């Protein structure tokens, strides 16, 4: 039995990949509208009001959002430069930052329960790996067209697997 409808879309919009903020004030969702592509929206859990946080466009997709434990920022995957890259959006400043430039792409970011590390899948020529990075090690990359073009095929140190560490799935059960 449905006890409450928070948002009712009337324009063929589809909400997917819902994630509740740790402070309980927001839901973040992939917002798909045919002809507009996939963007991210915040849904106020008390009022149901929508707040668009990334641009709706058919040129790229913003997807797979995850909350930082402080509920002040989101990490998500975007294909804005043609590859699946990691981005951070800060709610208070509305700042959007690219955190990776990997020509093979990454997917499925997940902040581990300790709140200090981020897991992600990294696509490589020999297959896919699950990798980890400390949140504090993630630094914004330049997003000017020339610098993005020059950096696409460089190996970035900030999103590489930790070869000396092994993690079992039990380490990250919620």
Largest sheet data: 4 strands, antiparallel
Low-confidence stretches: 145-174
The overall average pLDDT, rounded, is 80
How would you sum up the global shape?
A: globular
| End-to-end Cα distance | 27 Å
Radius of gyration over C-alpha positions, nearest whole angstrom: 17 Å
Which percent band covers the strand fraction?
A: 35-45%
Number of strands: 11
Side-by-side strand order of the widest sheet: 1-2-3-4
Number of helices: 1
Query: What is the H/E string?
Result: EEEEEEEEEEEH
Describe this structure in words.
This protein has 174 residues and is mainly beta. Helices cover 4% and strands 40% of the residues. The chain is built from one helix and eleven strands. The protein has one helix spanning 145-151; strands at 14-20, 26-33, 37-44, 50-52, 62-67, 73-78, 85-90, 95-98, 106-111, 117-124, 127-134. Strands 1-2-3-4 form a four-stranded antiparallel sheet, with no helix packed on it. It has a four-stranded antiparallel sheet with strand order 5-6-7-8, with no helix packed on it. A hairpin with a 2-residue loop joins β10 (117-124) and β11 (127-134). The longest helix has 7 residues, at 145-151. The chain is globular and about 45 Å long. It starts with 13 loop residues before the first strand and ends in a 23-residue tail after the last helix. Mean pLDDT is 80; it is low at 145-174.
């Amino acid at each position: 039995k449905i006890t409450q409808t928070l948002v009712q879309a009337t324009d063929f919009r589809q909400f997917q990949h819902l994630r509740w903020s740790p402070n309980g004030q927001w839901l973040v969702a992939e917002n798909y509208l045919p002809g507009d592509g996939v963007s991210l929206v915040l849904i106020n859990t008390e009022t149901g009001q929508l707040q668009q946080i990334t641009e709706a466009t058919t040129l790229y997709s913003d997807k797979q959002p995850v909350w930082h434990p402080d509920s002040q920022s989101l990490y998500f995957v975007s294909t804005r430069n043609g590859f699946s890259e990691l981005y951070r959006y800060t709610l208070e400043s509305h700042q959007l930052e690219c955190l990776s430039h990997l020509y093979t792409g990454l997917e499925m970011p997940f902040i581990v329960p300790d709140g200090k590390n981020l897991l992600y899948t990294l696509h490589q020529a020999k297959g896919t790996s699950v990798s980890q990075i400390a949140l504090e090690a993630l630094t914004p990359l330049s997003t000017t067209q020339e610098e993005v073009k020059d950096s696409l095929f460089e190996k970035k140190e900030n999103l590489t697997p930790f070869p000396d560490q092994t993690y079992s799935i039990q380490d990250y059960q919620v």
